[in-house]
Specification:
7-stranded mixed β-sheet; single chain; 9 helices
Length: 228
């Protein structure tokens, strides 16, 4: 079973053939909440000149940041080249965006950023490795903003959440490229403790943290601020 592998090894299996349909699927599969969540991320971004968007995928969040800060330089990084290819096509009208193919845990850009963002990445990575890679690329007063799915704590919401993924698993029969995602993603979300792990790691590395749950606890934003 796929879940016997490390979360990071699931990435190419989940997203190897989904780049061209990703924007449509993430919109309808989250009932449009993805756009709302990303707007909540934007609210946490301070005044910036240089922003790094990790696991940028097709560039949805990257372009929102570029729209909000047209005078800033935005660099989007992703491990999946097929997603970056789509991101570049979708971002042709943006002169302030650059895309780079790198592993977030092995980040090596030789730059210091005002803000580092990432949506849906934390659950796939090791907290200590990713946080240290980010801090290495963060200015003295910089901010890290992580967002990802969380398993709701309310039992009634949990039942709705579980039922919805049963439906998605059925839909996956008719969308083969997304079959593994719909089948194994809920198992990964239930098993991950990314929010606690990353907050503890950020604090251990001297960052001031805050967290915010969204949409009945089905996702969360974690902010870590570097204190001078």
């Amino acid at each position: 079973m796929l879940m016997t592998e490390s979360p990071k090894k699931l990435v190419p299996k989940f997203f190897g053939k989904t780049s061209k349909s990703y924007d449509r699927v993430v919109t309808w599969a989250t009932f449009g909440r993805d756009k709302y969540w990303k707007k909540e991320i934007l609210k946490k971004i301070p005044s910036v000149n240089l922003v790094l968007d990790l696991a940028c995928g097709t560039g949805i969040l990257t372009r929102l940041i570029a729209d909000a800060y047209p005078n800033a330089k935005i660099i989007g990084v992703d491990i999946m080249q097929n997603y970056l290819d789509v991101a570049k096509i979708n971002s042709q009208n943006y002169g302030n965006i650059t895309f780079v193919n790198q592993d977030a845990e092995k980040l090596n850009l030789d730059l210091k950023f005002d803000c580092i963002t990432s949506s849906y990445l934390p659950k796939y990575c090791d907290a200590e490795t990713l946080v240290k890679a980010c801090i290495k690329h963060l200015k003295d007063d910089g901010v890290i903003i992580f967002h990802d799915f969380t398993y709701p704590k309310n039992s009634f919401v949990q039942n709705l959440w579980d039922l919805y993924f049963v439906v998605l698993n059925f839909i996956g029969i008719f969308i083969p490229s997304w079959k593994d995602v719909f089948r194994y993603l809920p198992k990964l979300i239930r098993s991950t403790s990314w929010l606690d792990d990353y907050e503890k790691t950020m604090r251990h590395n001297g960052l001031q943290t805050e967290q915010k749950f969204l949409t009945l606890g089905s996702s969360a934003i974690l902010v870590g601020k570097k204190i001078c």
